[in-house]
Design a protein that fits this description.
alpha+beta, two-stranded antiparallel ribbon, five-stranded antiparallel beta sheet, elongated, 15 strands
């Protein structure tokens, strides 16, 4: 890979009396045009060879428009040139890159967080009756949702356990279940770029007339803008530019999961055979459907972070 995007985005800045200054302006300009670069020109190795865990069970999902935004809360100083006192048009929201490769990844902690938010919450330490009732009502809806996935995706399955918060927590998140980073798998044609080509005609001066030459290319990144108005809705907004993963980018989600066994529910008697109550493959199917239904990352309320089958 020609550059480490993470280093350029987050580390090639130094703080000088509170003013962010680029350590290398050429690299910063390269970074600011990331959305214009073709995937094959900036990624020179197979991410699978680095990220894939040999014991994991995976599934692949593809980003949909408008794309994916991960790590928007990370600090990213707006580029300011002290010589010209001019804004250089830098991306102004944070973004999460893998530290070693510099590639965009979805952290395992984020994957676990969105999955866990869909499961019933613990109310053991909640004493306010109003809040207890509110959580209980939400938990009932969450259990219905999980049961619906079981019925729809597992053909009803064979559920040899009582579906309640404590059981679900133990089956899906305890027993050393591992949530690994989701890594970049591939990029499909996704961005139309308008080039110019000679039309074969000439103008009155004899100069060649150029015409549009649209091409669909593979781009890992794209740019977007938000335009906050603040308290004054009539004030002219100041667009904030940010970097995102483009649509049609496939990520591999990977987990190390264990079957839920009879021995997980009780101590087996001498000579009693252990058996699978809920297999790891079924756990994976439920995780996949949750991500398809809820998405992941920032700005999901306006369509970001949604996936479809790859």
């Amino acid at each position: 890979m020609s550059e480490n995007f993470g280093n350029i985005s987050h580390y090639h800045y130094v703080q000088n009396k509170g003013i962010p200054i680029p350590a290398n302006k050429d690299q910063v300009r390269w970074h600011n045009d990331l959305h214009e670069k073709k995937y094959g020109d900036i990624v020179k190795f197979s991410p699978e060879g680095y990220f894939k865990h040999p014991k994991s069970i995976p599934f692949s999902l593809k980003t949909t428009y408008p794309g994916l935004l991960i790590g928007a809360g990370y600090s990213h100083p707006k580029l300011y040139d002290p010589e010209t006192e001019d804004d250089q048009g830098d991306y102004q929201l944070g973004f999460f890159f893998d530290h070693t490769t510099g590639l965009p990844v979805i952290p395992g902690s984020s994957v676990k967080g969105i999955l866990k938010s869909v499961f019933p919450s613990d109310i053991k330490n909640e004493y306010d009756p109003k809040k207890v009732k509110e959580v209980q009502e939400k938990n009932e809806l969450k259990i219905k949702y999980i049961n619906k996935i079981i019925n729809d995706k597992l053909n009803g399955g064979v559920i040899n356990f009582e579906v309640k918060p404590d059981n679900l927590k133990k089956i899906f998140f305890e027993r050393k279940q591992v949530f690994l980073d989701a890594y970049l798998e591939k990029v499909d044609d996704n961005i139309t770029v308008i080039y110019k080509k000679d039309s074969g005609k000439k103008d009155k001066k004899g100069d060649p007339i150029l015409e549009d030459d649209p091409k669909i290319e593979k781009h890992l990144f794209a740019e977007d803008y938000i335009t906050p108005h603040g308290d004054d809705i009539f004030k002219e907004p100041n667009p904030i530019r940010f970097l995102k993963v483009a649509s049609e980018v496939t990520f591999t989600f990977q987990f190390i999961l264990k079957d839920y066994m009879k021995s997980d529910t009780k101590k087996l008697a001498v000579g009693e055979a252990d058996e699978i109550i809920f297999p790891a493959d079924n756990i994976l199917i439920i995780f996949k459907q949750i991500i398809l239904d809820f998405g992941i990352g920032a700005k999901r309320n306006v369509g970001y972070g949604q996936f479809r089958e790859a």
